[in-house]
Amino acid sequence: MSLGNIADYTLKRELGRGGMGKVYLARSSDGLDVALKTIIIPEGINARSRWEAVERFQREARAARSLTHDNICQVLDTGADGETFFIVMEYLDGQSLRERIEATGSLLVERSVQIMFDVCDALAYAHDQGIIHRDIKPDNIMILRGGRAKLMDFGLASIVYETGMTQTGTMMGTISYMSPEQARGEKLDARSDVFSLGVTFYEMLTGRQAFEGEAPGAVLHAISNKEVESVSGLPPTVSRTLNKCLRKQPPYRFQTVREIIAALRTTGIHPVSKGAQKTVPTGTMVMPGTAPSGSVVPPTPAPAAPPSPPPPRPTPPPPAASPSKQAGFNCSKCG
Ligand SMILES: Nc1ncnc2c1ncn2[C@@H]1O[C@H](COP(=O)(O)OP(=O)(O)OP(=O)(O)O)[C@@H](O)[C@H]1O
Ligand SMILES: [Mg+2]
Description:
Elements: E1 5-6, E2 9-17, E3 22-27, E4 33-40, H1 47-65, E5 75-81, E6 84-90, E7 94-96, H2 97-104, H3 109-128, E8 141-144, E9 149-151, H4 156-163, H5 180-183, H6 190-206, H7 216-225, H8 236-245, H9 257-265, E10 325-326, E11 329-330
Helix pairs in contact: 3-6, 3-9, 6-8
Adenosine-5'-triphosphate (ATP) is lined by residues 15-20, 23, 35, 37, 73, 89, 91-92, 96, 135, 139-140, 152-153, 173.
């Protein structure tokens, strides 16, 4: 039974929902199964903000479309049907890393490292093009039936966080995977993704979130000020890699995702899938394309010489707990 149509796509069933809208399994006019994600711009915002949100959406969607990699969920099409904006992606048959962790608890070290290899390959490719993800988390990593991991939702976080393009009463992204600089609302570079990837790695290895708190303010405080609980029983190479992803100050982290890949190789664990080469995934529709928009953010600068240790920073008190508004964005998942 069909749930109706959006533009030329026939909606077959709901696959899930997130901060921006719903994700449907849909059928294209060519008869291909695709995932269609609706992006709903709330009514309440003024005309100028709305126009900016639409502009931003289109820019980010074009950039995401330009990314073609074995470990990235391919964006196939974008458009609008009345007030509903949408993104069409390849349909991924599998389970999100969030669902996997919820079902099984922590993953084996070997499996966690293999997933890291895949996600790092995807990120290294995107960072090379000046595109950072900004929302690395288990919900945005899909584990396919054959074991390969694919990263979803490139660039979309900025639409939610920076334009307030969220719906009251829906899930609005989570702050638990933010880097300290992201939590402070600063300008981000690829090293922010390195931190969020570390938080995700921690959760794979332990089954627990690295930074928790009763209210968003407490989570943000933990991200900026608390060291994660150490994980016992890890091979030292894995432990070192994890800890270096999670350094609070960007200059002390891995400076590039390729450095993480090099560190993962020292574990002696091998990737399952080979994701470094660019391919067009099977079943990809050839859509009339818009030229890629180019860089969304400047590429990460080349790693600098290790800096001298920064002076100790005073620990700011946690912001007043307000489940709905923190650091310029909305969150209803975490309060
Ligand atoms: N390309 C896809 N193929 C198959 N299922 C998908 C696809 N994209 C999303 N989903 C499903 O839809 C769910 C919701 O995705 P969505 O991206 O909207 O939410 P989220 O990642 O939890 O939050 P956010 O809005 O912060 O991205 C996912 O958890 C996944 O189960
Ligand atoms: Mg998502």
